[in-house]
């Protein structure tokens, strides 16, 4: 087992220019981490005890670009493209204290994380996260954390154990951490020769956190870094692979591609309070494609939705759709001819294999009245009837032969589910 190589007291780093902007990712990697920063190969270093972890973090900071280059990235803004199981693009802002906000380009929804709490913001609405959203933002928090390294050595984290572990057929130094602002547990892996952090294996949250429902989290999520690039003075991974294991089954991985990184950005200092209602607004229902499934009555909507989810059997797919209950056309009995519409948040979701038989053009309406309510699932038809009566009393005229809908935003997991839905009633133009 080779002895550790002692680095110079003043390791050579590239100074970070004032007001810097990240260098765009190069077409292909041309140098290794040690060539970027350390000038040549190192001898292997094998962790033997917890007491050696500070030494490993020091080396890792140097191979990631040095403390001067990484300091401005304690809070950083990442420009990301997602592919694989989840197709999206957007901006991630994350900080060293474990807060993050991801804003997709083509969606009205932002996903936030702070101290073990996940929320989804949509305009003035603030709602609990569904399982794919929790999984994604938590993985992106760790993506930021292991790229910038320095926060891992701070007092918020306790080293549970340290040593060498075999992962994916290779041996890595493994540091088992617990703590942070959200009471988390993870194993962080570093390359034995390069000393660079290469990934993390994230377990479920520990008990006693603010997470409202631990069942929303997968058993394990792994983040593996790849494609080394210089971004300003820092040497970062321009790519990552997110692997999720739920109920001992692996889920299709998500690839993360980085095109730019900037120091700074704004992340909420605490999780905002949930807001689950929104008053009347008027808008339009634009043309588009979606997935359409026949249901029958409202009582069959939830079982039918469960069948559809099981039939398509893709963990990430449903993060890219909204679930809409479309009632019978105005003039027909409300609780008849009910349909389930899956409307894409990102049009790329429609390209997933196996969706074509269910793909149809969705109705277009010039004027639609909308209102967000929180009600027991069983009372959704009654809430829709009440909303329609309110519209008529206010002088609006619901359009005949058009479908009113209930767009699902959130649902609890109780025996009698309570939902947050956006009621939509097509109107005749004034």
Structure description:
The protein has helices at residues 33-38, 53-63, 67-70, 131-148, 301-312, 380-393; strands spanning 75-84, 88-95, 100-104, 109-114, 117-122, 125-128, 157-167, 170-179, 184-191, 197-203, 220-231, 234-246, 249-263, 278-285, 288-296, 321-329, 338-344, 359-362, 365-376, 403-411, 418-426. The protein starts with 32 loop residues before the first helix and ends with a strand. The longest helix has 18 residues, at 131-148. The radius of gyration is 25 Å and the shape is elongated. It has a 13-stranded antiparallel β-sheet. The chain is an alpha+beta fold and 430 residues long. A hairpin with a 4-residue loop joins β8 and β9 (184-191).
How many angstroms does the end-to-end distance come to? 81 Å
Mean pLDDT: 85
Roughly what percent helix?
10-25%
Q: Name the poorly predicted regions.
A: 1-31, 207-214
Order of helices and strands: HHHEEEEEEHEEEEEEEEEHEEEEHEE
Integer-rounded radius of gyration: 25 Å
């Amino acid at each position: 087992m080779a002895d550790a190589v002692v680095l110079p007291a003043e390791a050579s780093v590239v100074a970070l220019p004032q007001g810097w902007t990240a260098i765009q990712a190069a077409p292909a990697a041309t140098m290794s981490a040690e060539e970027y920063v350390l000038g040549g190969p190192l001898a292997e270093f094998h962790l033997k005890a917890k007491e050696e972890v500070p030494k490993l973090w020091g080396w890792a900071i140097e191979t990631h670009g040095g403390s001067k280059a990484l300091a401005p990235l304690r809070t950083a803004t990442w420009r990301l493209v997602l592919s694989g199981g989840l197709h999206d693009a957007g901006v991630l802002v994350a900080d060293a204290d474990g807060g993050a906000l991801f804003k997709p380009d083509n969606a009205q929804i932002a996903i936030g994380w702070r101290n073990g709490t996940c929320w989804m913001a949509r305009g003035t609405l603030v709602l609990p996260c569904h399982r794919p959203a929790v999984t994604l933002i938590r993985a992106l928090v760790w993506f930021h954390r292991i790229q910038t390294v320095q926060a891992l050595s701070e007092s918020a984290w306790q080293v549970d154990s340290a040593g060498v572990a075999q992962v994916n057929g290779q041996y890595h130094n493994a540091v088992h951490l617990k703590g942070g602002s959200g009471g988390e547990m993870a194993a962080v892996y570093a390359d034995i020769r390069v000393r660079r952090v290469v990934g993390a294996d994230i377990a479920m949250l520990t008990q006693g956190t603010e997470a409202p429902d631990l069942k929303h989290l997968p058993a394990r999520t792994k983040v593996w870094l790849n494609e080394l690039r210089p971004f300003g003075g820092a040497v970062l991974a321009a790519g990552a692979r997110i692997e999720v294991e739920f109920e001992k089954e692996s889920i299709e991985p998500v690839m993360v591609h980085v095109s730019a990184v900037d120091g700074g950005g704004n992340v909420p200092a605490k999780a905002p309070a949930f807001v689950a209602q929104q008053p009347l607004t008027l808008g339009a229902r634009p043309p588009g494609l979606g997935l359409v499934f026949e249901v029958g009555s409202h009582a069959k909507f939830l079982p039918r939705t469960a069948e559809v989810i099981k039939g398509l059997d893709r963990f990430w797919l449903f993060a890219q759709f909204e679930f809409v209950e479309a009632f019978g056309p105005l003039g027909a009995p409300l609780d008849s001819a009910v349909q389930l519409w899956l409307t894409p948040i990102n049009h790329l979701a429609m390209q997933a294999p196996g969706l074509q038989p269910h793909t149809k053009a969705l109705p277009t309406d010039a004027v639609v009245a909308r209102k967000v309510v929180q009600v027991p699932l069983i009372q959704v038809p009654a809430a829709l009837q009440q909303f329609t009566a309110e519209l008529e009393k206010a002088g609006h005229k619901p359009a005949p032969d058009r479908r009113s809908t209930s767009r699902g935003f959130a649902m609890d997991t109780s025996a009698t589910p309570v939902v947050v839905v956006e009621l939509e009633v097509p109107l005749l133009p004034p």
